[in-house]
Design a protein that fits this description.
The structure is a homodimer. Helices cover 46% and strands 19% of the residues of chain A. Chain A is α+β, with helices and mostly antiparallel strands. Chain A has two domains: 3-155, Jelly Rolls (Sandwich), CATH 2.60.120; 160-240, Orthogonal Bundle (Arc Repressor Mutant, subunit A), CATH 1.10.10. In chain A, strands 1-6-3-4 form a four-stranded antiparallel sheet. A three-stranded antiparallel sheet of chain A has the order 5-2-7. In chain A, α4 packs across α5, α6 (162-179) packs across α9 (232-240) and α7 (193-200) packs across α8. Chains A and B meet through β4, α4 and α5 of A and β4, α4 and α5 of B. The structure holds a DNA duplex.
DNA sequence: CTCAAATGTTGATACAGATCAAAAAAACCT
DNA sequence: AGGTTTTTTTGATCTGTATCAACATTTGAG
């Protein structure tokens, strides 16, 4: 296959029109022309690798990003250098919205495994949004969704036991994989135990112990980073009890 | 003073044009005409009293609200009935943004003391925003700001000790009062110790003890709900240590 | 004004989860 | 492949904060 061939195939494959993720990041009835207008804004860079930054805390805010493949973690580093995980992002998820305020990225976004992205310059997107009401509405909804996600996280950190937090974490991921057409019962954790613990406000050791305990109880099966949920219902019970 | 007199004075007083809070909720250079267009959307209802709901979790999302006077708490009630405080709102603060997602209020907003509000129907605001780019931009920024606020909260809940959380809480309020032209050193807490504890992920007893300890250490002076910050710097040190 | 209910404070105790320590397992180099 | 580093697991101990209990204070209702 010649280089030009590959390029044209890529160009064909990569457009919002036929992107399987568009139901996640553009779940709105935009006309074909409108989708194409959005599509024209999208910059598709080379894939990034594990440990690479999409952006770092303090960077000038320019674009938002949509995960096309792979996964990403975002976290805040506070005054005394400690990190607080804010979230993990899967294909179709949007990253960087909080940056609008103050024109600076409020957190760092680091790639957990080789991943690719769509980059959308926010000022262009804004301009387009004021011409396409449905797009504007969609953007507001995406902001609102992010607020809900963080609200749910606050509930977890504020009230739940270590076991409940881990159970919630697994169920949340499970549901998110399911929405992407992947197995809700068996999946791979691209983030470290340390990251999971930090995200949930727990020490690494506690996180590890809970995984072990859930396995001993026959609720999940853990194989390193591969997780199998054996008893979805009991996991759910744990979270709500 | 006749009834009609009072009404007209109210009408005069209450407009975005001359509202002292507009720098908080509309901090953007909109033209006089544009501000008036926003103003036309604003519904100003009678004040609500302590314990009244602005909206309850699950209500259909219709409007966003700006606190004009008084204060408000917002919280999520989860499956097993426990509440998690999401935030406290002061004059100029916006409430209800998270509701855009799913068209339902994601949390309840309850009035902490007699308070008044501006209600802005969101669909009208959206329509106006697509005609006024600066307004659209401002709305995006307000969403972004809310995301930052919640991100900061996650850092607090995830990493800090009880003492650090209370110190942060006091400094945060202090700064917010200051931005409203009120004293940053002395203020009134309209929320209960229970609410503060819940917000910070602490038991009431712990919260109360920390207030006492901070007072014993000469850092603050507590008189029931009246707080005086004596040593702003030591408070700041606590948060960052 | 008086009593009941709600809110706040203080003390004693228990325990979940942090921290310390060390070994085991994986991942990463060159 | 072999050696180094990183990540994960497991065990022992410690501690901050929750919980339980009791009392004090404030608020609110009639």
């Amino acid at each position: 296959m010649t280089e030009s061939n590959r390029l044209s195939m890529d160009a064909l494959q990569i457009s919002c029109q036929n992107c399987s993720l568009s139901q996640l990041c553009l779940p709105v009835t935009l006309s074909v022309e409108d989708v194409n207008r959005v599509d024209e804004l999208v910059q598709r860079e080379k894939p990034l690798h594990k440990g690479d930054f999409i952006y770092a805390q303090g960077d000038v805010f320019k674009s938002i990003y949509i995960v096309k493949s792979g996964s990403v973690k975002s976290y805040i580093t506070d005054a005394d250098g400690r990190e607080q995980m804010l979230g993990f992002y899967l294909p179709g998820d949007l990253i960087g919205l909080a940056g609008v305020e103050g024109n600076r990225q409020r957190c760092s976004a680091k790639v957990l495994e080789t991943s690719s992205f769509c980059e959308v310059p926010f000022d262009s997107l804004e301009k387009l949004a004021s011409r396409i009401p449905a797009l504007q509405h969609q953007l507001f909804k995406l902001f609102g969704k992010q607020l809900c996600v963080e609200g749910e996280q606050l509930v977890q950190l504020g009230q739940k036991t270590a076991e409940q937090r881990v159970a919630w974490f697994l169920l949340d991921l499970s549901a998110r994989f399911a929405r992407r057409g992947l197995s809700s019962a068996e999946f791979y954790l691209s983030m470290s135990r340390h990251d999971i613990g930090n995200f949930l406000g727990l020490a690494v050791e506690t996180t590890s112990r809970i995984f072990t305990r859930l396995q001993q109880d026959g609720i999940i099966e853990v194989n390193r980073k591969q997780i199998k949920i054996l008893e979805h219902d009991r996991l759910k019970q744990l979270v709500e009890s």
